[in-house]
């Protein structure tokens, strides 16, 4: 079972690239982020014609997450994170597919920091921790897949100095990520590449892709039951080089 996390950066603009990826790689599950589409304008029919059942949680112009399942329909479990009744941003969608629970996560960026956007990011992490703890208690295979907007370690970025003041690398952001791992989650990509140096994102600016100035912010965390089925993990980096590509590359884990 290949489970992919893919920040698509605008599904309407990237639909040719997404359909291309689904056709070539045929992931069993794809968790999408940053749809930038309302529920009403989400191009569901195109994805169904490609052989995928799906659920989505859209938001006009911003955010948005979806879960796709090849040859079946995801069973929705949770839409949005509990803990803040005033939070209207579409950043979390949870589903069950063939006995595996997946969550598509688009964690807030948090810039500029310090400030209200960074405070929102930290509160959101705390809400995610609460939900993650509940999921662990179910003792089922769970994959928390998404764009976490957190660079966990210094070897997860091309230049520590260049990103030192960014919300993605602040101690509070990293501490939140480590608290998740301390609950018992396994960082699948880190498990496969313990020395780091694996990027999932390259900015459109300043020739970042051409210079390989990237960093790792897309993560797939595994519950103990999912980690027991771990086979491999990686980044389909070549898709970042294609015309009108997302600034993220599809990042994946394979489970037995």
Automatic annotation (TrEMBL):
Family per similarity comment: Belongs to the DNA repair enzymes AP/ExoA family.
Site (Important for catalytic activity) location in chain: 218
GO terms of molecular function: double-stranded DNA 3'-5' DNA exonuclease activity; metal ion binding
Residues engaged in binding Mg(2+): 7, 34, 147, 149, 247-248
Ranges where the Endonuclease/exonuclease/phosphatase domain occurs: 4-248
SUPFAM superfamilies: DNase I-like (SSF56219)
Gene: xth
Sites marked Transition state stabilizer: 149
PROSITE patterns the UniProt entry points to: AP_NUCLEASE_F1_4
Keywords for this protein: Hydrolase, Magnesium, Manganese, Metal-binding
Cofactor binding: number and manner: Probably binds two magnesium or manganese ions per subunit.
EC number assigned by the record: 3.1.11.2
Protein name: Exodeoxyribonuclease III
List of catalytic residues: 106, 147 (proton donor/acceptor), 248 (proton acceptor)
Cofactor: Mg(2+); Mn(2+)
Nucleotide-binding in keyword set: no
């Amino acid at each position: 079972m290949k489970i992919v996390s893919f920040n698509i950066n605008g599904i309407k603009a990237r639909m040719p690239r997404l359909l291309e990826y689904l056709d070539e790689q045929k992931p069993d599950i794809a968790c999408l982020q940053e749809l930038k589409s309302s529920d009403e304008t989400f191009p569901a029919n195109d994805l169904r014609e490609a052989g995928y059942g799906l659920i989505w949680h859209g938001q006009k112009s911003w955010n948005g997450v979806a879960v796709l399942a090849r040859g079946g329909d995801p069973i929705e479990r949770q839409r949005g994170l509990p803990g803040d009744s005033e939070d209207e941003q579409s950043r979390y969608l949870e589903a069950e597919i063939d006995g595996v629970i997946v969550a598509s996560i688009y964690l807030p960026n948090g810039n500029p920091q310090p400030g209200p956007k960074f405070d929102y990011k930290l509160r959101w992490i705390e809400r995610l921790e609460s939900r993650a703890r509940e999921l662990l208690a179910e003792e089922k295979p769970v994959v928390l897949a998404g764009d976490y907007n957190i660079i966990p370690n210094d070897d997860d970025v091309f230049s520590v100095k260049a990103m030192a003041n960014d919300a993605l690398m602040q101690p509070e952001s990293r501490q939140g990520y480590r608290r998740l791992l301390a609950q018992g989650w396994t960082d699948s990509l880190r498990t496969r590449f313990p020395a780091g140096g694996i990027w999932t994102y390259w900015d459109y600016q300043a020739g970042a892709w051409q210079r390989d100035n990237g960093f790792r912010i897309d993560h797939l965390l595994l519950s103990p039951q999912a980690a027991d089925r771990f086979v491999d993990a990686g980044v389909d980096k070549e898709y970042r080089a294609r015309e009108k590509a997302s600034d993220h590359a599809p990042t994946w884990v394979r489970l037995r």
